[in-house]
């Protein structure tokens, strides 16, 4: 159809001048480095405490490191410790974790010490939560507080974007994850100028954060599963079944989220809620074993080293227990994020599918399971696809994952999120 010459052509979106973007590089790089150092510092402190709690102390008293008694004791003690922080430390370790997501609220500086302390206790003590949500909140608050003093005329939203991007880059060891998150966020906003102009400074922050983490700790998400090779029709069928199954399983937790949160909320006081949550987590650990403790990254690497080392029933038990532990930890007030535990759930689900049907390649099962779980838990399509792909590190899996995303997304879109409003109702 010929274009009507009487109609004016749509105006091109003006690009931002280079002289406007250049001054943002140095602040962005600084923010990226600092966000990574905060993450690495908290992680290092938590690892030292974890060694004391799970190695030094049980060896000293002659108790098995991961015996049922010791797991129950440490998890209840972690609930008591976090409860004391939430109760007594100024700022009460920030808002209710059930009401927060990757987009962090801007917290006053007085809240940050308590939030960092509670996060370190959680990472060391074994509750099934990761560092992402609280570390993003801490870095956003620091960047905004320091940035507005150093550059009073700079927009506050810019510092928030830099801190979020830098932290996500540091968490995943690559700026690609941050670029995907920001692109997804910008898709729902009216962006002035071209997309890459808006991504320029955050991408610099994410790159600096990722490089700092890589140079210091050499992170790797590749599970070194058996080589995948060229995808076939059976692989496509497996991915189209496992990813929606993961999404459905995740949505079960999403729908249970407000009810579990309300149940713990009836206890009202953090010194009741958190120790009770620790006791429930201790019981779950007794059912699922020590691999269902902690944020889950080291544990999925152990599962992946021997995909045939557990039965389908054992994988299924770990899947359900870890998802329940994620639900209880968040709803009872432990500070932490939900992405990394969800990766463990998806990995265990995918390996369960492989154990049930050996024709399901472990790489296909794991990546599809993680994709479905993350879509339900985070509602972040690009991040879910990215994390599922990097676990396998094989380009042949990408086509399968892109196709598997479609039915899984239809199951989660328009439904409640795994996040609550202040009044306890689910975010949609």
TL;DR?
The chain folds into 2 domains: 21-217, no CATH class; 233-412, Clc chloride channel, CATH 1.10.3080.
Q: Topology as H/E string?
A: HHHHHHHHHHHHHHHH
Count of the separate structural domains: 2
The secondary structure category is: mainly alpha
Q: Poorly predicted ranges (pLDDT <50, ≥5 residues)?
A: none
How would you describe the shape? globular
Count of separate DSSP helical elements: 16
What is the rounded distance between the termini?
41 Å
> Rounded to an integer, what's the Rg over CA atoms?
22 Å
Beta percentage is under 5%
Q: Kindly state the mean pLDDT as a whole number?
A: 88
Biggest sheet character = none
Helix content bin: 55-70%
The count of strands amounts to 0
Membrane topology: Multi-pass membrane protein
Pfam family, one: Voltage_CLC
Main location: membrane
Keywords: Membrane, Transmembrane, Transmembrane helix
Structure report:
With 428 residues, the chain is mostly helical. The protein folds into two domains: 21-217, no CATH class; 233-412, Clc chloride channel. 68% of the residues lie in helices and 0% in strands. It contains 16 helices and no strands. α2 packs across α4, α5 (132-150) packs antiparallel against α6 and α6 (156-172) packs across α8. The two termini are 41 Å apart.
Features:
single chain, 428 residues, mainly alpha, Clc chloride channel, 2 domains, globular, Cl-channel_core, transmembrane, membrane
Topology summary:
Elements: H1 18-21, H2 25-61, H3 68-88, H4 112-125, H5 132-150, H6 156-172, H7 175-187, H8 195-217, H9 233-265, H10 270-288, H11 297-305, H12 312-331, H13 339-356, H14 362-378, H15 381-392, H16 396-412
Pfam family, one: Voltage_CLC
Main location: membrane
Membrane topology: Multi-pass membrane protein
């Amino acid at each position: 159809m010929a274009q009507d010459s009487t109609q004016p052509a749509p105006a091109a979106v003006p690009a931002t001048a280079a002289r406007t973007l250049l001054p943002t590089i140095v602040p962005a790089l600084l923010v990226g480095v600092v966000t990574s150092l905060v993450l690495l510092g908290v992680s290092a402190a938590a690892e030292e405490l974890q060694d004391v709690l799970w190695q030094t102390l049980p060896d000293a008293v002659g108790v098995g490191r991961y015996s049922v008694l010791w797991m129950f004791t440490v998890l209840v003690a972690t609930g008591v410790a976090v409860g004391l922080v939430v109760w007594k430390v100024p700022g009460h370790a920030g808002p209710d974790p059930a009401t927060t997501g990757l987009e962090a609220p801007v917290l006053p500086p007085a809240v940050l010490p308590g939030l960092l302390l509670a996060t370190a206790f959680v990472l060391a003590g074994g509750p099934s939560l990761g560092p992402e949500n609280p570390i993003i909140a801490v870095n956003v608050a620091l960047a905004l507080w320091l940035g507005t003093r150093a550059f009073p005329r700079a927009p506050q939203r810019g510092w928030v974007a830099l801190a979020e991007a830098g932290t996500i880059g540091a968490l995943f060891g690559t700026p690609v994850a941050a670029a995907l998150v920001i692109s997804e966020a910008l898709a729902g906003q009216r962006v002035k100028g071209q997309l890459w102009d808006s991504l320029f400074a955050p991408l610099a922050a994410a790159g600096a954060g990722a490089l700092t983490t890589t140079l210091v700790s050499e992170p790797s998400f590749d599970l070194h599963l058996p080589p995948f090779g060229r995808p076939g029709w059976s692989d496509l069928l497996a991915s189209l079944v496992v990813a929606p199954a993961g999404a459905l399983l995740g949505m079960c937790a999403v729908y249970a989220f407000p009810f579990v949160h309300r149940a713990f909320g009836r206890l009202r006081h953090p010194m009741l809620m958190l120790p009770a949550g620790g006791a429930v987590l201790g019981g779950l650990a007794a059912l699922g074993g020590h691999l269902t403790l902690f944020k889950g990254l080291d544990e999925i690497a152990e599962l992946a080293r021997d995909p045939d080392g557990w039965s389908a029933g054992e994988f299924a038990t770990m899947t359900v227990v870890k998802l329940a532990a994620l639900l209880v930890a968040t709803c009872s007030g432990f500070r932490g994020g939900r992405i990394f535990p969800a990766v463990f759930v998806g990995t265990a689900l995918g390996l369960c599918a492989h154990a049930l049907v050996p024709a399901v390649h472990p790489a296909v099962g794991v990546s599809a399971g993680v994709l479905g779980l993350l879509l339900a838990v985070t509602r972040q399509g690009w991040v879910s696809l990215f994390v599922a792909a990097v676990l396998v590190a094989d380009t042949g899996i990408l086509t399968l994952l892109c196709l598997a995303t479609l039915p899984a997304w239809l199951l989660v879109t328009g439904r409640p999120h795994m996040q609550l409003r202040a009044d306890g109702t689910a975010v949609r």
